[in-house]
Glutathione synthase/RimK-type ligase-like ATP-grasp enzyme
Amino acid sequence: MTARAVLVGCAKLPEGDGDERAVLPALAEIGVTAGWAVWDDDAADFATADLVILRATWDYTARRADFLDWCASVPTLRNSVDVVHWNTDKTYLLDLESAGVPIVPTRLVPPGTEPDWPDVPFVLKPTVGAGSRGAARFAGGSGDAAAHLRSLHQRGHAVLLQPYQSSVDAEGETALVFFGGVYSHAFTKAAMLTGAGVDGSGLFVSEKLGPVEPEPGFRALAEDVLDAAVERLGGRRADLLYARVDVVRGDDGRPVLLELELAEPSLGFAHADAAAPLRFASAVRQQLR
């Protein structure tokens, strides 16, 4: 079998952030030629690709409508445009909560409204955002939070308000990665809303990552999250080329969902075992068939 895949970046990261360095050789070993292209480059050839794989399209947040139109124009896109449309607005968390998934408590604050401000530490984040840009942590009360909320609203964003999970300071987040609906590996992400700088591209907050063996409760929640997501989307787990489930420990000690990333997440290859790119390559072959 021979096939051509295109990994998709953006103008500031036309070949991603380097995490996929081992992916292209792994694909080549099983007959898939792969290269990079920028999603909004008119000269890029997506039409003849057997598979078009979103990887580092992290500038889409400023032009989400244009980005979704482009996604709809690429029939071999993975994950599919329906998945991307649902997952690039963080109100999907409320859909999953309605399906019984335990999530970090989340309130939606639409433009023109203001919440009852918590008196405990909390986070504000835009519903459409990537790389933690626009997210900020506050100590409690309105204070600077009201100004940040107005700034996000003025830019047209609806906003999520979530109590800050104190376990993140000690444990960070656990990101569990799946290929073709099957668990592959996990890595940790240290707390990012405590003054971490923005990457040189300006597209994401710098992260401190590391490998981890997730505890069974985190694994079980991640499996439940994927099942609930595909039921909501009307597909199968195998339809998802990749998924990343970000889990934290809630204040009661139980795992809760922070985010589900199905559009263009970092997959932590640099912090996984050497076989992870091979598992990804096999999942690509499965999608091709």
In short: DSSP finds eight helices and 13 strands in the chain. The first helix runs from residue 23 to 29.
